[in-house]
Design brief:
This protein has no helices and 9 strands. The chain is mainly beta and 98 residues long. The chain has one domain: Sandwich (Immunoglobulin-like). Strands 3, 5, 6, 7 and 9 form a 5-stranded antiparallel sheet that branches. Strands 1-2-8-4 form a 4-stranded antiparallel sheet, with no helix packed on it. Strand 5 and strand 6 form a beta hairpin. The model has no long low-confidence stretch (mean pLDDT 93). Bound molecules: calcium ion. Calcium ion binds next to strand 7.
Length: 98
Amino acid sequence: MLYDRRGGLMFLDVTVTNTSAQMISGPLQLVLDGISSPDVTLANSDGQTSDGKDCLDLTDETDDGSLDPGESVVVRLYFVNPFRRRFTFELGVWGVLS
Ligand SMILES: [Ca+2]
C-alpha cells in the first residue's frame, strides 16, 4: 500500500486475471468487503452491490467488455485513511460465465 501525500489517499494496484478457460462477460465488478477499520473508506467506488458492498466497474478496463482466458486488467484502489490505520479487506470479482 502506497501513500499519496498530496491527495492524502492510500492506494493499491490490483491485477485481475482470468485464469480459467472460460470467457467472463461484463458487467465485471471488483467487490470490496470487510474493511477492518471503520475509519477507512474506499475513495473511488463506482457504486454499491445490492447487499451494500463497494464495487468498482472493471468492464471498461477490458479490451472489449469481457475478460477472456488469460486477459488481465489492472485497477487502482484509493482509500481515505485519515488516521493512517492498518487495515485489511477482502476482494471478490463478479462477472458472468459465458
Ligand atoms: Ca476481452
